[in-house]
Write a structure and sequence with these properties.
Length: about 350
């Protein structure tokens, strides 16, 4: 029997849960979590059931346009929890399914209500940053150059999301959303080059060299800290393969206040690199790791531009989120004097 996938919380019934959990559920209370947190239109619901531990249901977007837009992303998360998550610092998954015909998906996860969240706009402190980097190293080392990576998307994600068109619309979208921000020439030069050479850069960063599983959206809204201080990664919709430092750069650029990053980033990149070595990774020098770190600025340029032009940023919370994200990115570019030459792979 094919089990339907709910598109609305009203479908999270005791009968449906009994089918997917394989044991009777006699009653369930469904409560929305985070009314204005996500950008992609999906929703989270806490399921409270007599005789069961609480679960969190993650539904695909109710809006059919958004549901189609993020169908492949949501299917990737289902693949991650069904095939790649065992033993990693992620929530336990009770059930995950997607339907390519309709774009619907659902993931039932361990309720992490006991874990601590850090607001994105506040930014991560040093202890939490180090916990995140250790989690990255553990996940990346576990899948370092693994044969199973051949089935994962690297540069293939570009078939779903382009940069050229969003970048062409970005200045006007930014002027409407954040009229007090003027883009510096350095950012414009990097984005111009990236929009014209995206396939080439992604080929080098996510199809060649030492590859591993990437989260590809590891910002603070997608991270919790358990009572032992371990960082737990959520929201694996953008999951794929590539150079592990891509996740490190994405996190440090977006989720750490600029001055704190400036003061510590060399130490933090070294901590990540040392942790990889401690987990058994070989053949990846610190020099290459640092070079890849700077090149991974593309991770934030790409997502910042696409998210500003394609997603709903109208609420005060999301507008403040976008401003914080962009100002931290601009500071990173200025701090390192980055130019398109950073993506000159000829001298590798």
């Amino acid at each position: 029997m094919q089990i339907s996938i709910p598109t609305h919380p009203s479908g999270l019934t005791a009968e449906w849960l009994s089918l997917v959990l394989g044991a009777p559920v006699t009653d369930v209370a469904v409560t929305r979590i985070g009314e204005d947190e996500g950008f992609t239109g999906g929703a989270l619901y806490r399921l409270t059931m007599t005789g069961w531990d609480n679960l969190v249901a993650k539904l695909s977007p109710l809006d059919p346009v958004l549901r189609a837009q993020f169908a492949k992303s949501n299917a990737r998360e289902v693949t991650f929890y069904n095939s790649l998550s065992d033993g990693l610092p992620v929530p336990n998954c009770a059930y995950a399914a997607s339907d390519p015909a309709t774009g619907t998906s659902i993931v039932l996860l361990q309720d992490m209500a006991h874990a601590r969240a850090v607001p994105f706009i506040e930014g991560a402190g040093s202890t939490d940053v180090e916990a995140v980097l250790r989690t990255f190293a553990r996940i990346h080392a576990a899948w370092w150059n693994a044969p199973a990576l051949s089935g994962l998307s690297g540069a293939g994600i570009l078939s779903e999301f382009s940069l050229a068109d969003p970048w062409a619309r970005y200045p006007s979208a930014l002027a409407e959303l954040l009229p007090d921000i003027t883009l510096p020439d350095s950012f414009v030069a990097l984005a111009d080059h990236a929009a014209l050479n995206l396939d080439h850069i992604y080929d080098h960063m996510q199809e060649r060299g030492p590859l591993t599983v990437l989260h590809r959206d590891p910002q603070l809204d997608n991270i919790l800290f358990d009572p032992d201080g371990q960082a737990i990664l959520l929201d694996w919709q953008m999951m794929g393969k590539g150079r592990g430092i891509w996740d490190v750069a994405y996190f440090l650029i977006s989720s750490v206040p600029a001055q704190r990053r400036r003061d510590n980033e060399a130490t933090w990149v070294a901590l990540y690199h040392d942790a990889l070595l401690a987990h058994g990774v070989t053949g990846y020098s610190y020099r290459v790791c640092w070079q890849d770190y700077l090149r991974s600025v593309l991770s934030k340029i790409f997502v910042t531009v696409v998210a500003t032009t394609e997603l709903d940023n109208r609420s005060d919370h999301k507008r403040a989120w976008r401003k914080t994200d962009l100002t931290r990115l601009l500071a990173f570019i200025e701090d390192h004097g980055l130019t398109p030459d950073i993506w000159n792979f000829d001298y590798d």
